[in-house]
Amino acid sequence: MDLIVLGVSHKTASARIRDEVQVHAEEMGVVYSRLRAHSELLREVLILSTCNRTEFYGFAKDRAEADQLLRETVDEVKGVSHFNNGKHTYSWSGRETVRHLFRVASGMDSMMIGESQVLGQVREAFDTADNHKAVGALLTRLFNTAVHVGKRSRTETEIGKGTVSVAHAAVEMAQKIVDRIDRCPVLVVGAGETGALVARHFADAGPKVLSVVNRTFERAQALADELGGKPLRWEDMDRALVEAKIIVTATGAREPIIDPNRMARVLKRSALGPKVVVDIANPRNVHPDSGNLDRLFLFDLDALESVAEQNQARRRKEIPKVEGIIVEEVDRFLAWYESLDMVPVIRALRGRFQEIAEKEMARQVKNFDSGDLEALKEYTRALLNKLLHQPTTLIRGVEPSSKHGIHKLVAIQELFELDLEGFRKGTGESKVDAGTEKDRNAKADGETDPSSSETGGDEVDS
Fold it and tell me: Which residues are catalytic?
């Protein structure tokens, strides 16, 4: 059994290729249905598909066969050959799978380092897989840990501090001047790709009203409808400029559409006090001399890019800290994963019961004479052997690579709150389990303690 990941991302494929392989919401059912039909091969599977990556995480009986199944399935559903030809894909297993997912969740594998949107996408991907009954104990633990890693990265470091997006920098810049965007009318001039992006960022900030002006009214209307805003016609722009507190320009005009004279008339007619104008266009939509007017704060693309680059440099300094968190969490997850075998589980189960027995003996020792203590230890050891005989036998019969084997072992761990890491390191050795020197010598010689003849020798040391 192996943990695997197969995918394409912005690092390996162009935007066109990524678009052609992206598994959309309406296609998830079809893909999951096809993959779940091969559950003996691919025990668990999860699809993470966004505009920047399409990845398949799985718990597979045979890595090569599962890899081929995934490639064929996505290409058949999407009608392309991008996965099968292998030119744009990456494929990892084991530790590299875990490390990759944790880097994705922490924003380390994003186009913009530390971006936070991907953490929500990881959560959503898990929920979708869970709804399709495609994940079990293993991927559930893996993705819960991935979300935990993402949160740690953002709370313990500054990897997510400060925007690295020019469009979002426009919001931050305006917010520094007006303080409360929710009290301000916002006007976005231009409904193209850049205008739409900045309008969405302002919409997320919850302005008092969001107006959109565009030369083609239908585009302004479509964007305003999407964001719950108000579309305005191009000929109504002067009135819109007067009524707005924050103005963002993002048109493709080759010459400035707002000059100092026009803006002076707007300021004279407006009762809203100083205005913030953010010119995100290239070439500029607002003549730079407009910045000399009283009651006007003008920011251009150069200022926004400078802010974004400063924040990007700040984030890059945090990379070693985040990588340290990832290494720590990868090691912790793999320690848990590698414990999913019957011997560590049996040892931890016995250790758990022995720990309880020792505490109870320590509490009751005052009620016994010193001459009875050895007999009490022998009685306790024999009782533990008898109590644990049947559970131990059943656990020995679990095959981790079987369809439900791994889930049974996980359930036992969680039910009894077993500390497999402690017992694997040897910290779970118990005084009760150690017994007398005679007992240890008898075990070394292959003898069986007569007092535990019903256990079938279930004191696990192997």
Answer: 51
